[in-house]
Amino acid sequence: MPDQLLFATEVALNGLMAGVMYSLVALGFVLIFKASGIFNYAQGVMALFAAMTLVGIQNGQVPFSHLINAIFGTDIHYFGWEAPAILAIALTVVVMIALAWAVNRFIFRHLVNQEPIILFMATIGLAYFLEGVADLMWGSEIKTLDVGLPQGINETIDSVTFEIFGYGFFIDNLDIVATVIAALLVLGLVAFSQYTKQGRALRAVADDHQAALSVGISLNFIWVLVWSIAGFVALVAGIMWGAKSGVQFSLSLIALKALPVLMLGGFTSIPGAIVGGLIIGVGEKLFEFAIGQPFLGGATENWFAYVLALLFLVFRPQGLFGEKIIERV
Amino acid sequence: MKKTLTTLAVTALLAGPAAADLVIPDLSYRTGPYAAGGIPFSDGYQDYFELLNQRDGGIGGEMVRVVECETGYNTEKGVECYESTKGEGALVYQPLSTGITYQLIPKAAADGIPLHTMGYGRTSARNGEVFNNVFNYPANYWDAASVAVNYLLDENGGDLSGKTIALVYHNSAYGKEPIRTLEALAEKHGFDLTQLAVDHPGQEQKSQWLQIRRERPDYVLMWGWGVMNQVAVQEAANVRFPMENFIGNWWAGAEHDVTPAGDAANGYKSLNMNTINPDAPVFDEIREHVVDAGLAAGDGSNVGNVLYTRGMYAAMLAAEAIRKAQEIHGTANITPAMMRDGMAALEMTEARMEELGYPNIGPVFSVSCQNHGGSGQGLVQQWNASEQRFEPLTGFIEPDREVIDPLIQEDSMAYAEENGITPGCADS
After folding, report:
1. How far is B29 from chain A (nearest CA, A)?
2. What's phi and psi for B71, nearest 5 deg?
3. How many whole angstroms separate alpha carbon B180 and alpha carbon A260?
4. I want to staple B375 with a disulfide (CB 3.0 to 4.6 A). Which of B75, B146, B365, B415 is the partner?
5. Smallest Cα–Cα separation from A250: which of B293, B32, B348, B320?
6. Which ranges in B86-218 belong to alpha helices (H)?
7. Where would one find the signal peptide in this protein (chain B) (predicted)?
8. Nearest-CA neighbor of A54 among A23, A30, A90?
């Protein structure tokens, strides 16, 4: 196989893996939009908040310690214990459920029947508020996230491809783990929505709010449920991205990588978020490899992802898997 | 945060004007994506002035009042901070952002307030005859690029011909700064320069590091900031690029840039414009008079780390310029114009650095009307993961003035022509 083709194949495989990481973020957007019609601008910040909470619990950090110390003149920062990763993850899930309840109780319950743009604005406010709370709770410094995820080149793939092609492919172990987790997440979400009472209720709400209400489904419960699931997805995304860069405030910017995925895959489709992520990941990486770096000076990935998404939008405005909305007059 | 809340509480209680006369704005960024870098620098900057107030009763008998303003590393907010604080009698601004610096250069010139852009900002501001009010001592970006190449020359017996150096840079004005100098140095020394741009914020760098894995350059230089640094170090480890051949600039060489990658970051190198010595006597003084007294800008945990030391060094240079200005003009209560004179006559000697409690914190240098950039020297440090600290590998290395000075002359004269400036020294 010619060298350039081998390199392109390696780039495409890494693009697929990067696409999975984008999909993990996009999934949270899709879940909330599908159930409530809200485009949740705060999804990236939720990933940041979840990851910071996880590391804070793991390290035994006292939440709001700076605030407490400033008010009471104390000097406490840590409880003095370290929690195992699995316990810290479980406790973070509880925090994300509490957050979901609070978001619905104090914000969206008061905004029922408002225009989508009002709901969108509310999520912008929520994003900035949550970022401030995360800062107050856990501080601004970069935190090392260690939940035992493997990182670095996968030796098996490297040696097998070297034996076959004479060139060892680079695939990051973290990306492989992310792919497995994303697959399990999608299977779990599909099973939940198909085979559980709450899942069927969620689908009913997603199809028609009024009809769901008329058969006794509690909209409040469903919204808390879906924000909780989105919070869990945000935690998974936060762990995967935080493992690469440490947990820091720029983690919230991963939402920018999810937007072209949503435009391409559709705002209402879980498979769309996955397929959209894969197309964006492969597309941007191959473009950078073949055209961006050799001819345009590089750094094309951010804008090319949006160009790709726009191209799809022109021909299929609802996205690849989105529902076509027809309004009769 | 602690400092902010304490300040708010004290302000609310006293509700009166502060008595201090030497006003130093601190354009900090304690929030947002770059807070991890902004917090220790600001802590160091403020704590040193607090030390002078507590220990010495200020400078020349005048207390220093630090006015902190949060920029979030955002250019618009930085300009707002400048506008809202300059009326308080600000003596000097440390904008701590190249973007903010570019916006403030014409404003500060019009207002007659000096800027100190230490190791960042507009490189050609070294030419003091064009940029009367801007100082970028002790070194600038082009010095940094040249120091890195001189270090590599030294590592390779003075010959880099046939070697390949890849520059991984933040795709912004800041990241592109060293390209011109590196191109000139590549031509002079015969090495190949590969340029790899990384889009903001730099969380995804797979393409760049796959290319490095394929092409195996001999060395990688990095002009990064924020999350780009942590991801680059991790990706370098992932593709098994030798850490000892990976050199970041001085904004890519703090503890938080390497700790997320754990042991894999061991051996990573970076430039620095000042030394790192957590055992320096000045830190003991800060702990005694500031941290233990509950007056620190932060919680005291950053004292002695890379960016805290740099912030403290910036404050030390500002304080020395104030002393020089007081000496020149025979008054303790100086104006911004007098401060500029003090900065233009600043001298940092070995003896003076020792007196200040940190021998050899920076290079020996002097500033003049013509040279606002100091010596331009920098050093190389290396991360020791087991000790969790950067350790010096070299002493201060001279940059290649033969290459840099003509570039500075060309760029500064172009600026002078565009802005109708007649080069010359400022009137005292």
Report:
1. 10
2. -100, -20
3. 34
4. B365
5. B32
6. 98-111, 141-155, 173-176, 179-189, 206-215
7. 1-20
8. A90
Interface contact flag, A144 B234, Cβ < 8 Å: no
DSSP class of residue B422 equals -
What phi and psi values does residue B25 have, to the nearest 5 degrees? -70, 145
Residue of A nearest to B234 (CA): A244
Place of tokens 């094309």: A300
Query: Would you list the domain boundaries of chain B?
Result: 2-139+277-376, 141-272+378-406
Residue B179 DSSP label: H
Residue B13 has pLDDT above 50, yes or no: no
CATH number of B141-272+378-406: 3.40.50.2300
A69 to B2: CB separation less than 8 angstroms, yes or no: yes
Measure B214 CA to nearest chain A CA, in Å: 8
pLDDT at B87 over 60: yes
Size of interface A-B (CB pairs under 8 A): 135
Residues of B in contact with A145 (CB under 8 A): 260
CB A247 within 8 Å of CB A51: yes
C-alpha span between B374 and B138 (Å, rounded): 5
- The residue-averaged pLDDT of B88-113 equals 95
Residue A76 scores a pLDDT above 70: yes
Identify residue B38 by its one-letter amino acid code: G
Q: Which residues of A touch B256 (CB under 8 A)?
A: 141-142, 246
Is the Cβ of B97 closer than 8 Å to some Cβ of chain A? no
**Residue in A closest to B172 by C-alpha:** A299
How confident is the model over A149-193, as pLDDT tens digits?
999 999 999 999 999 999 999 999 999 999 999 999 999 998 998
- pLDDT tens column, B25-71: 999 999 888 888 999 999 999 999 999 999 999 999 999 999 999 99
Does the beta-carbon distance from A144 to B259 stay under 8 Å? Answer: yes
Any idea which residue has 């290459």 for tokens? Answer: B403
Q: Is A22 helix (H, G, I), strand (E, B) or coil?
A: helix
Asked if A265 and A321 touch (Cβ cutoff 8 Å), the reply is yes
Asked if the Cβ–Cβ distance from A285 to B206 is below 8 Å, we say yes
**Type of residue found at A17:** M
Asked if residue B330 has pLDDT above 60, the reply is yes
Give residue for tokens 């002393």.
Answer: B323
Alpha carbons A44 and A251: distance in angstroms, whole number: 7
Question: Looking at beta carbons, which residues of chain A come within 8 Å of B199?
Answer: 299, 301-302
Q: What is the ipTM of this complex?
A: 0.90
Identify all chain A residues contacting B195, using CB atoms and an 8 Å cutoff.
297-298
Of chain A, the percentage scoring pLDDT greater than 70 comes to 98
Q: Hey, is the C-beta of B213 within 8 angstroms of any chain A C-beta?
A: yes
Asked whether the beta carbons of residue B299 and residue A18 sit closer than 8 angstroms, the reply is no
Between chains, do A250 and B238 touch, taking CB under 8 Å as contact?
no
Count CB neighbours of A248 within 10 A: 26
- Dihedrals φ, ψ of B406, to 5°? -65, -35
B404-422 tens-digit pLDDT? 999 999 999 999 999 999 9
Instruction: Please judge whether A245 and B203 are an interchain contact, meaning their C-beta atoms are less than 8 angstroms apart.
Output: yes
The overall longest dimension of chain A from CA atoms, in Å, is: 69
Residue B238, chain A, CB below 8 Å: the answer is: yes
What's domain B2-139+277-376's architecture?
3-Layer(aba) Sandwich (3.40)
